[in-house]
Design a protein that fits this description.
The protein is mainly α. The chain contains ten helices and three strands; from the N terminus they run αααβααββααααα. α8 crosses α9. The protein is globular, with a radius of gyration of 22 Å.
Length: 206
């Protein structure tokens, strides 16, 4: 009798372990660690900003998971092609770049342009976006990074989020364009938008 109970216990334990393994792998694929990081490190700030600017907190948390994995120190990413475009803009070789005019960066040193050509904060917003908001790069990457970033998101493509056009919203954040009517996503990582939509299922009730 004891032998049988012992065998059943072993089988149950093995089934639990196998089930746990597959659950772990499925969570790993959708980035459960990112999900937890976002909640712990930015959940409250995002909820406050989402209410203030009337945008979906689930979208913002998903975006944060995509862009910085929700890390408390998200780091930065220098974009050399943006740096080159900004230098050309400053020299007057081009008249506009993503809404900027030569006068906007006329007094910027190369170091300043590097900061403007770098993405910062939990949403990895490009530094030059600070010029639209009337703030500095330090503000964009500082303690109020979530507040400033969500402000920019709301002004730039908040209408897409409020209309629940989430594919377009994720695509716009990453590329500055809507999803093409014909063809594939223009994002470098083709899983970027599908992962963002998947994340939203885990954040929607949080």
């Amino acid at each position: 009798m004891m032998n049988r109970k012992f065998k059943i216990s072993i089988v149950v334990l093995l089934l639990c372990l196998v089930g746990s393994y597959f659950i772990y792998q499925s969570y790993r694929k959708i980035g459960l660690g990112n999900y937890r990081n976002v909640i712990v490190n930015y959940g409250t700030d995002i909820d406050i900003a989402a209410e203030r600017y009337n945008v979906s907190p689930a979208f913002l948390k998903s975006l944060c998971a995509l862009e910085s994995s929700g890390k408390s120190t998200p780091g930065s990413r220098f974009e050399s092609h943006v740096f080159e475009r900004l230098k050309k803009l400053k020299r007057g070789e081009i008249s506009k770049y993503d809404g900027l005019n030569p006068a906007d960066i006329a007094n910027s040193s190369d170091d300043a342009l590097r900061n403007l050509a770098t993405s910062w904060g939990p949403f990895q917003l490009m530094g030059y976006k600070c010029l639209e908001l009337g703030i500095s790069v330090n503000d964009l990457r500082g303690k109020k990074s979530v507040e400033h970033s969500v402000n920019w998101i709301s002004k730039s493509y908040g209408h897409l989020i409020r209309a629940k056009k989430y594919e377009d919203a994720f695509h716009f954040h990453n590329t500055g364009r809507l999803v093409p009517t014909i063809g594939r996503y223009l994002t470098h990582d083709k899983s970027y938008i599908p992962r963002g939509i998947k994340y939203m299922q885990y954040f929607v009730k949080k």
